[in-house]
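How it folds
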Amino acid sequence: MNRSEFLNRLREALENDLGGSAVQEHILYYDEYIRNEIRNGKTEREVLDMLGDPWIIAKTIIAAGGNAATQENSSWSYDTGDEEKRNNKSRGDMIAHILGIDTWWKKILFFLGVILVILVIFAVITGIVRLLLPIVIPLLFILLFIRIFGRRN
């Protein structure tokens, strides 16, 4: 895929959910971004590989309310080439992107998975306590008995 194919796919993905001016703004943004990265010494293929699938970018833009390229804290900027600007994403966004948690049902499944792990850990701990309790309680009574009657002698 080349730059124009990437931008056309991005345009197609955005057109159904965003207005014409917002779509054009994003297309211009990514076109300028690709051109800047090429000017900074990267090949077109490297830049497009780094950006990834235009459909996923479009889903992210749409989920962000259509203004992902214009947000102040956006991970991409027109004057890119500065690695620090690309690393400005919040941890939550990064984790969601890495894990592919980009839809509501994936977020619910992730949340349920976390709860399941917590419940399993709780069950293991309570199981260990239930196994040790019959041993520990008599030992405590014996120690208490020795302490009480050991002082009288």
